[in-house]
Amino acid sequence: MEEEKNAGPKEPTPYLYLPKINSPEDLKKVPEWDLPEVASEIRRYIIETVSKTGGHLASSLGAVELAVALHYVFNTPDDKIVWDVGHQAYAHKIITGRRDAMPTLRQTGGISGFPKRSESPYDAFGTGHSSTSVSAALGMAVASALKGDKDRWHIAVIGDGALTGGMALEALNDAGAWKGDIRLLIILNDNNHSISEPVGALSQNLTKLVSTPAFLEARERSKKVLSTIPKLWDLAKRLEKQAVNFVSPPSSLFSAFDLNYFGPVDGHDVHYLVRVLRNLQTQRGPIVLHVVTRKGKGYEPAEADPTHYHGVGKFAPAEGLKQKAKGAPSYSGVFGKWICDMAERDPRVYAITPAMTEGSDLVEFAKRFPTRFRDVSIAEQHAVTYAAGLACGGMKPIAAIYSTFAQRAYDQIEHDVALQGLPVLFAIDRGGIVGADGPTHHGLFDIALFRALPGVTVFTPSDENECRLALNTAFSLDSTTMVRYPRGKGPGVPVTASLTETIPVGKARVLKEIPDSVQKGRRVTILAFGAMAWRLEGAAEKLRAGLVDMRFAKPLDDEAIVRAAEESDLLVTAEEGIIAGGAGDGVLETLAAKGIEVPVLEVGVPDVIPSHGSLDALLRDCGMDEDSVVRRVGEKLLAIGGAVRYKE
Question: In this predicted structure, which of 1-5, 341-345, 436-440 has the lowest mean pLDDT?
Fold first, then answer.
């Protein structure tokens, strides 16, 4: 007994199948009865690697058997698989030749956390935003049919949450109109049990029966005979739908779109999945297969709390995620505290979010003010127009939405809110470069998009206390406002502003003046927006430059811009967003309108979409980090040769 205690940690069980699987063709060489063990090894490898890199864990663990079965049955990459959102596709990546690259997942220079067409021929469509898979797969299926290739399958794997997005329903409506000439399989990955009860024997056996070639052939023969007698054919269709709906109520949704529905089936029974998929291969036309899975499957902490384990940082698998020590609040945390405080004070406060309750830090608000909170699911467009309706009804709605997802509701923001001048406050989270989530999640375009809207005020708070002040001020205005803040934590400035403290709209604050000792030809002022104000404090110090926190992308402080131009030989605009059309371009517009000529260096994201990786590395790649800005300013000053500004 004592020897067993002192034996030390056990050696991990070696992988027997995984080292041999470098492609779906290798997977197909595995005997079918061994597929559960393959799935088990893939699941263990996902936990092992994601615990070291961070990533989307629970969803990927739930889709392992589904990925194995799809690649085992279908002829990928000739047959196309589109993974909606894509955060459940880690098993897919492992099977399709990226097993050894998994330790680089979401790391600088490593593989993406989402499917990416340029990364692998097996990634049929780049994803990251929700509810796009059915539209994309339908388009591919139609393209194949037009080219005469009617045997290629096109598979959309969509979660039940993604079905709450209106775009998915639009695609289902269109897909139902295609009959017999395309091969489209829509797999509903029901991983929340929010649509169906647990799978029972009756529904399993029904699916097995109705997906067999014999049944499908009989159905087609009956259709040919009965379709000549319209009333009898309608009766037969109704009876079939009623029989299936009795066992599986979710099918009524797909029946309404005239789509052939099968399921629900156990998404963790890989043998059964393989048999059903092989049966469905004999069909043509759009098909829906309802698969029930469990998020976090195979890792007990993730099964117990899939929301907590949806997106994880590094952790020890044996210990699970630990409670983070409380420190300075993140920008989201500042917003979460502020909206609770304001709701206590003003009964008109109403919070809306499109499936971002946790990420936007609205959990506490939802608990304390349940009648004034609505998570509308993945429905950004509805969220915005719903907010507009609330504003028309006398409420003060606050829509919390990530920058990258706000793009999806731009028309509603312009047409339904801004055009009518409605007092909706948009809390735009994750503005700027977000790091490991990469291109699909960077918030690069919000400043350029929203400053183009007449009558809209765009706040770009630089630190935690400024964020609270911006929220106070935005709430006090009877117009459309945007408070745009980055992901994560700021510089750690104490949040001391009371709810009644505001700042003058369109007025900047000077953080650092140009020292009088700086000679002509070397005088520089940095006009910084948002977090760039504190990120470039060191650069301002090294350059002995002035530093202005502009506070607003719209309206701009024209007086501060003119004053800086008059005092400087070079202006530097700095923002964490795309340069084209951004706040820096707004400064150039002001200078042009005032007839002022002064050299300007625009610092921001150039005409590219940055990759994924660490924030520091991505800022450096874009020439936005402290050292890069110091170097670029020095090069610009050298190029202009101490050129003097021209003032009319």
Answer: 1-5
Contact 391, 397 (CB under 8 A): yes
Beta bridge partners of 373: 351
Active site residue 408: yes
Alpha-carbon distance of 15 to 81, in angstroms, equals 27
In angstroms, rounded to a whole number, what is the distance separating the alpha carbons of residues 124 and 175?
A: 19
Q: Nearest to residue 189, comparing CAs of 87, 278, 287, 292?
A: 292
295 is catalytic: yes
Residue 360, CA atoms < 13 Å, CB-side half-sphere = 28
CATH of domain 331-484: 3.40.50.970
Considering the candidates 43, 408, 430, 554, report the single residue annotated as catalytic: 408
CA–CA dist 579, 589 (Å, integer)? 13
Both ends of the chain: CA-CA distance in Å? Answer: 91
Residue 643 has pLDDT above 80, yes or no: no
571 pLDDT higher than 60: yes
Closest to 59 in 3D by CA, of 94, 41, 40, 86: 86
User: Which listed residue (65, 380, 575, 602) is catalytic?
Assistant: 380
Q: How far is CA 180 from CA 150, 183, 259, 286, 336, in A?
A: 10, 8, 11, 8, 51
pLDDT at 160: 82
Q: Residue 156: what residue type?
A: A
**Would strands 396-402 and 425-429 be described as parallel, antiparallel, or unpaired?**
parallel
- Above 70 in pLDDT, residue 395? yes
Find the catalytic residue in 183, 275, 295, 487: 295
Task: Pick one of 3.40.190.290, 1.10.3210.10, 2.40.240.50, 3.40.50.970 as the CATH number of 15-312.
Answer: 3.40.50.970
Name the token pair of 503: 């700042």
The CATH number for 509-647, chosen from 3.30.470.30, 3.40.50.920, 2.60.120.1060, 3.40.50.2000, is 3.40.50.920
Going 252 to 254 to 255 to 256, the CA torsion angle's sign is positive
Report residue 285 as tokens: 């036309």
Distance CA 448, CA 469 (A): 23
pLDDT tens string 187-214: 999 887 333 333 343 334 434 444 455 5
Neighbours of 340 (CB within 10 A): 18
Give the lowest-confidence range in 53-57, 106-110, 235-239, 598-602: 235-239
Six token digits for residue 142: 């139609």
Q: Taking a C-beta distance cutoff of 8 angstroms, is the pair 425, 461 a contact?
A: no
Question: What digits encode the pLDDT tens for the residues 272-300?
Answer: 999 999 999 988 879 999 999 999 999 99
Amino acid (one-letter) located at 370: P
Closest to 247 measured CA to CA, from 213, 289, 294, 196: 196
DSSP per position, 179-244: -SS--EEEEEEE-SSSSSPPP-HHHHHHHHHHTSHHHHHHHHHHHHHHTTSHHHHHHHHHHHHHHH
One-letter identity of residue 207: T
What's the confidence (pLDDT) of residue 180?
Answer: 67
**Same fold for the domain at 15-312 and the one at 331-484?**
yes
Token readout for 57 is 């864990």
Q: Where are the domains of the chain?
A: 15-312, 331-484, 509-647
